[in-house]
């Protein structure tokens, strides 16, 4: 929430508006006085890393009464405030909409009662409202992610990781209750991210006789060599007859019926607190900027809207339509239309549920090596990154469910050439989602000279299709294999490349597995570094991030840690720019915010190195500030994967195998597989709002091979936000993709009488 408050204040001031804080939520609006204060640029400094909200929030009964809203309106009119930005859940947003709807009526009453003059009423004749959804449950329909959800998942996954280590040692069953009274999002994503054995969510209660199924499943898991069982339960979990299912109930069932050593943990308010994740800070900052734009463009005719994120696109949605669909979910659940409830939650919820169901609710084929005639090989290429193992695990398990035999290739393309290939089974990948690095082993070598050896091994091991998980090398290697198809018929098999690299520089995808984890590592490090400067004052830090020529990490980390600038290769900078930055920092030292943070992407410029910048800033800042330099290095590639990367890896892994299964059917002719069409070798990537397969060959034109980056990069549009929030005056905003108002009702299909 604080990132959103900070961005709204700074963007508002940047556009020349006066921005006010309303402390203590609607209560502050009703009470007025000191609760409504003018905000300044500096008043929102050093708050990005704080959880909760610095302006306070409170449940307010007075605002639900008309007299309360009259007082609130009077306070706003006196300060000539006509734009209101509300961050909260559906209750707060519905309240805001009601306030707006009866605004003219409130003004008439105030004028009649002599509280305000006719002149004042005329000046504030209209109230504009924009909402941002802050709720850890992610229970607001129409939005992919609400502010706070990702941070809550970070807290939950930290706990799950800690619990699973002890459960593994003692062969225990753990039941974990997470928040979500009416929405199972947290429970569902947690279950996906930790590979839980069972999940209870309110939208989709278990079938009748679930007790029996659950016990069978736990026994089966132990039988396959698993030493622990994890069950995730949303606090609003219920059965088909809407009777609550509680933690204790499940615990008693497992311990009495199976005699397993069982423990239960209720996470409670731990999930609300802590430092916000990088994703949440960027989401909050983007939403804050978008909210100000929406308010400035609003007319009396535009409906109150919420700003939200869909894929990586900022969107505006009519507030009341979202509230309506959110209510429809509750209605669908009470009427027992559970399929509808899941559909209404939106595409991303539906995808999570389908993936979970496929991985967890199917009894896998027996342990024996599969008798399927299809072999799919999985290979990791390039530098290791967090989340690779999650993708491998999902691919292996979905492949086995589809009836294929899965093969693991160790140590990249070298392993493929040297025959380091062996079958990999269900139990081998247990617990892989939470492990960083690459368990299969990986390196940066391309097929190159070994193409002939590779094609011989493809025949020898009877490989029918290939999943390549990795960074830019995976993409290049894939292209080399496709090009070599003319010479080697053995390479005419379906292939899919899954982007996994901290640099996020693979053409064909807006995000790659591993980038979110690296971003969180950089953000946390920057927080600590800034904190050290808060004590010493007048200090500027220059930090070098990874990413090769791709400035994604530097830019996004700049947004999430509140940097003064981020130097990247894609946006050339010259001596004049460096001079401006130094002047900007000298000015900044005159304010109450006496510290600076500059990020530089490792290959931003071959002459203006990190050392050069450090020397320049040290010399120019003499007597005003001193400098320190940090090169973050390989800590950015390690660590346990973030919830986003686990979930993303799992979805990518399973989707790739399902696609290959269909492709193999298409390419099966005269008793053998033959695939030489461009669309039989694809990159699976996230584009704007959905996962899409794009032929490797078709991405060549959009690739800068020399610098190993795509020619078009969506996140460059966010660069101006970084500058504006760091107080640069003249910033060109690219508003060509300004978010238009979209409708939610049409998207989900209104539910009438139980029919979609």
TrEMBL record:
EC number: 2.7.1.11
Regulation acting on activity, per entry: Allosterically activated by ADP, AMP, or fructose 2,6-bisphosphate, and allosterically inhibited by ATP or citrate.
GO biological process: canonical glycolysis; fructose 1,6-bisphosphate metabolic process; fructose 6-phosphate metabolic process
Region span, N-terminal catalytic PFK domain 1: 1-361
Amino-acid positions noted as binding Mg(2+) in the UniProt annotation, renumbered to this chain: 90
Pathway: Carbohydrate degradation; glycolysis; D-glyceraldehyde 3-phosphate and glycerone phosphate from D-glucose: step 3/4
Residues given in the record as beta-D-fructose 2,6-bisphosphate binding sites: 444, 501-505, 539, 546-548, 628, 634-637, 708
Domain Phosphofructokinase span(s) in chain numbering: 1-294, 375-659
Catalysed reactions, as listed in the record: beta-D-fructose 6-phosphate + ATP = beta-D-fructose 1,6-bisphosphate + ADP + H(+)
Residue positions binding substrate: 135-137, 172, 179-181, 235, 263, 269-272
Ranges for region C-terminal regulatory PFK domain 2: 375-756
Keywords: Allosteric enzyme, ATP-binding, Cytoplasm, Glycolysis, Kinase, Magnesium, Metal-binding, Nucleotide-binding, Transferase
Transmembrane segments: none
Cofactor(s) recorded in Swiss-Prot or TrEMBL: Mg(2+)
One GO CC term, this protein: 6-phosphofructokinase complex
Cell compartments where the protein resides: Cytoplasm
A Pfam family: PFK
Residues where ATP binds: 59-60, 89-92
Record's keyword annotation contains Metal-binding: yes
Chief location bin: cytoplasm
Subunit architecture: Homo- and heterotetramers.
Family: Belongs to the phosphofructokinase type A (PFKA) family. ATP-dependent PFK group I subfamily. Eukaryotic two domain clade "E" sub-subfamily.
Described function: Catalyzes the phosphorylation of D-fructose 6-phosphate to fructose 1,6-bisphosphate by ATP, the first committing step of glycolysis.
Protein name: ATP-dependent 6-phosphofructokinase
Organism: Salvelinus namaycush
Taxonomic lineage from the root: Eukaryota, Metazoa, Chordata, Craniata, Vertebrata
């Amino acid at each position: 929430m604080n990132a959103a408050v900070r961005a709204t204040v700074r963007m508002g001031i940047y556009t020349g508006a006066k921005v006010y804080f309303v402390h203590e939520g609607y209560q502050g609006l009703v009470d007025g006085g000191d609760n409504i204060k003018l905000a300044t640029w500096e008043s929102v400094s050093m708050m990005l890393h704080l959880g909760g909200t610095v302006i306070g929030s409170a449940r307010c009964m007075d605002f639900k009464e008309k007299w309360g809203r009259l007082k609130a309106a009077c306070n706003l009119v006196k300060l000539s405030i006509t734009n209101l930005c509300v961050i909260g859940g559906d209750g707060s947003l519905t309240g805001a909409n009601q306030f707006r709807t009866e605004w003219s009526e409130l003004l008439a009453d105030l004028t009649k009662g002599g509280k305000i003059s006719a002149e004042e009423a005329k000046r504030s004749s209209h109230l504009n409202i924009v909402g941002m959804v802050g709720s850890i449950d992610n229970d607001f329909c129409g939005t992919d992610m609400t502010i706070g959800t990702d941070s809550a998942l970070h807290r939950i996954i930290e706990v799950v990781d800690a619990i699973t280590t002890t459960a593994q040692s003692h062969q225990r069953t753990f039941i974990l209750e997470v928040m979500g009274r009416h929405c199972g999002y947290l429970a569902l994503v947690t279950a996906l991210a930790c590979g839980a054995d069972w999940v209870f969510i309110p939208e989709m209660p278990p079938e009748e006789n679930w007790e029996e199924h659950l016990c069978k499943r736990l026994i089966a898991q132990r039988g396959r060599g698993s030493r622990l069982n994890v069950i995730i339960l949303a606090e609003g979990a219920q059965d088909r007859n809407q009777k609550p299912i509680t933690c204790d109930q499940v615990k008693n069932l497992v311990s009495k019926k199976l005699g397993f050593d069982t423990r239960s943990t209720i996470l409670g308010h731990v999930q609300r607190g802590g430092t916000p994740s990088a994703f949440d800070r960027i989401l909050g900052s983007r939403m804050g900027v978008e909210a100000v734009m929406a308010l400035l463009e609003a007319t009396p005719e535009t409906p109150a809207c919420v700003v939200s994120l869909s894929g990586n696109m900022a969107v505006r949605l009519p507030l009341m339509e979202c509230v309506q669909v959110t209510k429809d979910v509750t209605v669908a659940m009470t009427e027992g239309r559970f399929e509808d409830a899941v559909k209404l939650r939106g595409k991303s919820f539906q995808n999570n549920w389908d993936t979970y169901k496929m991985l967890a609710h199917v009894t896998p084929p027996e342990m024996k090596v599969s008798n399927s005639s299809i072999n799919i090989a999985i290979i990791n290429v390039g530098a290791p990154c967090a989340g690779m193992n999650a993708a491998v695990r999902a691919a292996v398990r979905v492949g086995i469910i589809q009836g294929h035999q899965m093969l693991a290739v160790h140590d990249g393309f070298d392993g493929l050439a040297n025959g380091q290939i062996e079958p990999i089974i269900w139990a081998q990948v247990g617990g892989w989602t939470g492990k960083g690095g690459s368990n299969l082993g990986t390196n940066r070598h391309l097929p190159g000279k070994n193409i002939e050896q590779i094609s011989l091994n493809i025949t020898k091991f009877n490989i029918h299709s290939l999943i390549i998980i990795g960074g830019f090398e995976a993409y290049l290697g894939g292209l080399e294999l496709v090009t070599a198809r003319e010479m080697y018929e053995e390479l005419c098999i379906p292939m899919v490349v899954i982007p996994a690299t901290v640099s996020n520089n693979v053409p064909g995808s807006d995000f790659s597995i591993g980038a979110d984890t690296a971003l969180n590592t950089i953000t946390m490090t920057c927080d600590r570094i800034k904190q050290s400067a808060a004590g010493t004052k007048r200090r500027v830090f220059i930090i070098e991030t990874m990413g090769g020529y791709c400035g994604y990490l530097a830019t996004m980390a700049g947004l999430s840690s509140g940097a003064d600038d981020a130097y990247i290769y894609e946006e050339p900078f010259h001596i004049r720019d460096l001079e401006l930055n130094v002047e900007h920092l000298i000015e900044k030292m005159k304010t109450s915010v006496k510290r600076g943070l500059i990020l530089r992407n490792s290959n931003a410029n071959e002459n203006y190195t990190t050392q050069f910048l450090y020397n320049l800033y040290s010399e120019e800042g003499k007597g005003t500030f001193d400098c320190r330099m940090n090169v973050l290095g390989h800590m950015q590639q390690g660590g346990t994967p973030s919830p986003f990367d686990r979930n993303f890896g799992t979805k990518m892994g399973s989707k790739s195998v399902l696609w290959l299964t269909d492709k193999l059917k298409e390419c099966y002719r005269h008793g053998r597989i033959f695939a030489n069409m461009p669309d039989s070798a694809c990159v699976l990537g996230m584009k704007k709002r959905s996962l899409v397969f794009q032929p490797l060959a078709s991405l060549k034109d959009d690739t800068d091979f020399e610098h190993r980056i795509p020619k078009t990069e969506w996140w460059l549009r966010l660069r101006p936000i970084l500058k504006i929030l760091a107080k640069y005056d003249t910033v060109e905003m690219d508003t060509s993709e300004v978010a238009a108002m979209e409708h939610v009702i049409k998207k989900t299909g209104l539910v009438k009488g139980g029919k979609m």
